[in-house]
Design brief:
Elements: E1 2-7, H1 12-25, E2 31-36, H2 47-62, E3 69-72, H3 80-86, E4 91-93, H4 94-105, E5 109-113, H5 116-128, E6 135-140, H6 155-169, E7 174-178, H7 186-193, E8 197-198, H8 200-213, H9 248-254
Parallel strand pairs: 1-2, 1-3, 3-4, 5-6, 5-7, 7-8
Helix pairs in contact: 1-8, 4-8
The chain binds 1-(2,5-dioxo-2,5-dihydro-1H-imidazol-4-yl)urea.
1-(2,5-dioxo-2,5-dihydro-1H-imidazol-4-yl)urea (2AL) binds next to loops.
C-alpha cells in the first residue's frame, strides 16, 4: 500500500522529519511517499496560513501519482474535508488521528501545541471532532513551528515542562503533540512522562493502514462527493472540474 504524506507547509526539512516518523511506524509493505507543498507558507500558524496552504495541498493530491491513502501532516488539519472531496482514497489529518488514538489509550488527554493562536485553532478542532469529553485542555508553549527545528532553541525542554504541567493540572493521562514538527519528540517525552504521548503523524499512518486494509474508501455520497463542476476564475481558473489540465474526476478514476 502506498501512503502519500503531504507536508502542507513549504519547509522541506520538516518533511524529512515527518517522513522519518512515518517510516518508523509503517508496516514493512507500506510505501511512504513524502511531499512538501510547492506553494504557501513556510509554517502554518494561523487561519490565514491555513487557508493559503490549501492550494499547495490539493495540488499534491491532484497531480498524483495516486496513493491508497493521504496524510495531511499539519496539526490544523488544513483542507481536510476539501481533500476528502477530491479522491475516494481515505485522507487523514494528524490532529483528528492523534485525538482518536488518544481516546483508545486514555480517558482524558491534553494537547501541547505551539503558539497561543494555534491553541485556539486546536480548540475549534476539538469541538468539531466531538472530542470535548476526551480533551481536558489545549496548552500553548509559545514555541513557533520553525523553532522546533532549531537545535539552539529551548523547544524540547519547554515542551517537556508544559507536558509535566498538563499531567499535574489537567487530570490528563495522555499527551497529544500539537504539531507535525514535534513528531521526533514522542519517544523522548514518553520516556520521561511515563504516559502515552501521541504523535499524529504516526497515528495517521497506522489508521491509514487499518482503513485501507479494511477496504474502506471515502464516501462519495453527500458532502464528500466530487466538487461540483463549475467555472473557476482568476488565479484559480485551472481548478474548476473539467476546465483545467488536472481535474478531480481524473484523480478519482486513477485511485
Ligand atoms: C503546524 C504543523 O503541524 N505544521 C505547521 O506548519 N504548523 N501546526 C501547529 N499547531 O503549529
Amino acid at each position: 500500500m502506498r501512503i502519500k504524506l503531504i507536508n502542507p507547509n513549504t519547509t522541506s526539512s520538516m518533511t524529512d522529519l515527518i517522513g522519518a516518523a512515518a517510516r518508523a511506524v509503517a508496516a514493512e509493505r507500506t510505501e511512504i511517499i513524502t511531499t512538501t507543498s510547492r506553494s504557501g507558507p513556510a509554517s502554518i500558524e494561523g487561519h490565514f496560513d491555513e487557508a493559503m496552504s490549501v492550494i499547495g495541498l490539493v495540488d499534491e493530491i491532484l497531480e498524483g501519482p495516486p496513493a491508497d491513502a493521504y496524510v495531511i501532516a499539519c496539526f490544523g488539519d488544513p483542507g481536510l474535508l476539501a481533500a476528502r472531496e477530491l479522491t475516494d482514497a481515505p485522507v487523514f489529518g494528524i490532529a483528528e488521528a492523534a485525538m482518536h488514538a488518544a481516546t483508545f489509550v486514555s480517558t482524558g488527554f491534553s494537547v501541547v501545541t505551539t503558539l497561543e493562536r494555534t491553541r485556539i485553532i486546536t480548540e475549534h478542532l476539538v469541538r468539531s471532532y466531538g472530542m470535548e469529553h476526551h480533551c481536558r485542555r489545549v496548552r500553548a508553549t509559545d514555541v513557533p513551528v520553525l523553532e522546533l527545528e532549531n537545535p539552539k532553541s529551548n523547544a524540547r525542554a519547554t515542551i517537556l515542562a508544559e507536558c509535566e504541567q498538563a499531567l499535574l493540572e489537567d487530570q490528563s493521562s495522555a499527551i497529544v503533540l500539537g504539531c507535525a514538527g514535534m513528531a521526533d519528540l514522542a519517544l523522548y517525552l514518553e520516556d520521561r512522562l511515563q504516559v502515552p504521548v501521541i504523535d499524529g503523524v504516526a497515528a495517521a499512518v497506522k489508521f491509514a493502514e487499518a482503513i485501507v486494509g479494511m477496504g474502506l474508501k471515502t464516501s462519495k455520497r453527500g458532502d464528500l462527493a466530487l466538487p461540483l463542476p463549475k467555472i473557476y476564475r482568476g488565479k484559480l481558473s485551472g481548478y474548476g472540474s473539467g476546465t483545467g489540465p488536472v481535474t478531480p474526476p481524473a484523480v478519482l478514476k486513477a485511485s
